[in-house]
Amino acid sequence: MYNPAHFAVDDTAQLQALIQQHPLGMLVLQVDGQLDAHHLPFWLRVDAQGQTVLQAHVARANPLWQQLADGGTVMVVFRAEEGYVSPNWYPSKHEHHKLVPTWNYRVVHAHGQLRVHDDEKFVRAVVGRLTQHHEAQTQQQSPQDYPAWKMADAAPDALQQMLGAIVGLEIAVTRLEGKFKISQNRLPQDRLGAAEQLEAAGNTALAQQMRSV
């Protein structure tokens, strides 16, 4: 991806945090000379050697796991906050009228080697981690009258059937590439002016990121 120095982020902790906060990734791969994309929630962990690892699962009916049964190079794209920025929101625009519209966003590209895990132990662990993490987040964001769902709540037969219908994936990440385009290249008053307008429009998350520069 085109990534000018003023937008490039190479802080591994920041990139891992974005993935953890926005885990729905677009897995991009090449099969028989054709590009293919799959949208999957990923679980990020760091192994004993300090390597970033992404784990997910797909339906057994999905041909992906058979097409890459022997492994392969893939890329996963994670997107965070994004939004249109009007030049009218820049105070300096009204002085010289030389600014144009843009689009701000934060993304991470994770490159690595994919490995298929067609075994229940791996799949059960991945489903358990994903469920526990997102149920906890759901409870924090919008507390309910009922407790967080856990795998033990499912009928054993139904759970066993579900686990048998999915296959695990694991990606050993070889490179993380981050692009945080949040108006770092604009004058402070223009960046903050745009952030104010974004917040007024309800895009609070992107506004907060722009103020954090």
Characterization of the model:
The chain has 213 residues and is α+β, with helices and mostly antiparallel strands. The protein has a single domain, classed as Electron Transport, Fmn-binding Protein, Chain A (Pnp Oxidase, Chain A, Roll), CATH 2.30.110.10. 33% of the residues lie in helices and 36% in strands. Strands 1, 2, 3, 4, 5, 6, 7 and 8 form an eight-stranded antiparallel beta sheet that branches. A hairpin with a 2-residue loop joins β2 and β3.
**What oligomeric state do the depicted chains represent?**
single chain
Task: Give, in order, the helices and strands.
Answer: EHEEEEHEHEHHEHH
| Individual helix count | 7
For the sheet with most strands, the description reads: 8 strands, antiparallel
CATH topology description: Pnp Oxidase, Chain A
CA(first)-CA(last) distance: 22 Å
Amount of helix = 25-40%
Strand content: 35-45%
What CATH architecture label applies?
Answer: Roll
**Beta-strand segment tally:** 8
Mean pLDDT: 92
| CATH superfamily placement | Electron Transport, Fmn-binding Protein, Chain A
Report the radius of gyration as a whole number of Å. Answer: 21 Å
CATH class: Mainly Beta
Total domains: 1
Specify the structural class: alpha+beta
Molecular shape: globular
What are the segments in which pLDDT stays under 50 over at least 5 consecutive residues?
none
